[in-house]
Amino acid sequence: MAARPVLLYPDPILKQVAPPVEAAELDRVAQLLIDTAATYERCVGIAAPQIGELVRVAIVDVSEHPKAETSNGLIVLANPHVIASEGSKVAREGCLSLPDVTANVRRATRIEVKHLGGTLECEGFEARAVLHEIDHMDGILFLDRVESLVDDVFRRKSYAGGSGPVVPASDSSSGGAGGASASVERGTGESSNASPGGRMG
Q: Beta strands 153-155 and 101-107: pairing type?
């Protein structure tokens, strides 16, 4: 199955809430996500809305990320929702759909997620990646989660392409900055002066 191009902000699909995926469609969409993620260096997660499939499916695999202390390997999340969370930490995130910037985002450090495949526990960087992709299915972008557009958003120094805005105008119903699609990066830094190198979807 061929890879799909990743949608870039301000594509309106990125701000829509995705409906549940039907079981008959799950394998097809999951394979599209796996094939697409493989074409992006250091990609650790991607959600179906980012490739134009408006359903609740995402994949996450942090197994090769140096900051991932724990990993469940390749995770296919279908119709996921968080049933428990604890802790809080700010760390750098980036996104395939807004490739020119990264931002400091606060996330839970441990989560329990229920999805079609059962119940999953994630910690640390893997929890961050999973939460990032679940946000995509709810039309929430990682810039929607930053506390300050001035202090917590950074232009990506190593990205060679992209011509979109550094910080899009706020259009999020959640009250944060509008406009980035979340995608977890393998080289995501842990502090505001870190140099992230991987990508979340």
A: antiparallel
User: What is the rounded CA–CA span in Å between residue 200 and residue 133?
Assistant: 8
22 catalytic? Reply is no
Q: Among the options 53, 133, 147, 185, which is catalytic?
A: 133
Residue 3 included in any domain = no
- Give residue-wise pLDDT tens across range 64-96: 999 899 999 999 999 999 999 999 999 999 999
**Looking at residue 25, which CATH number applies to its domain?**
3.90.45.10
127-167 pLDDT, tens digit each: 999 999 999 999 999 999 999 999 999 998 764 443 333 33
User: Which is more confidently placed, 53 or 176?
Assistant: 53
What's the pTM value of the predicted model, to 2 decimals?
0.82
Q: Please give the residue range of the domain that contains residue 135.
A: 12-200
Q: How far apart are CA 110 and CA 76, in angstroms?
A: 18
β-strand 75-78 against 43-47: which pairing, if any?
unpaired
Closest by Cα among 193, 188, 192 to 43: 188
Of 149, 132, 127, 121, nearest to 200 by C-alpha is 132
Amino acid 156: pLDDT: 87
d(CA 100, CA 54): 24
As for how many domains the chain has, the answer is 1
- Peptide bond preceding 20: is omega within 30 degrees of 0, i.e. cis? no
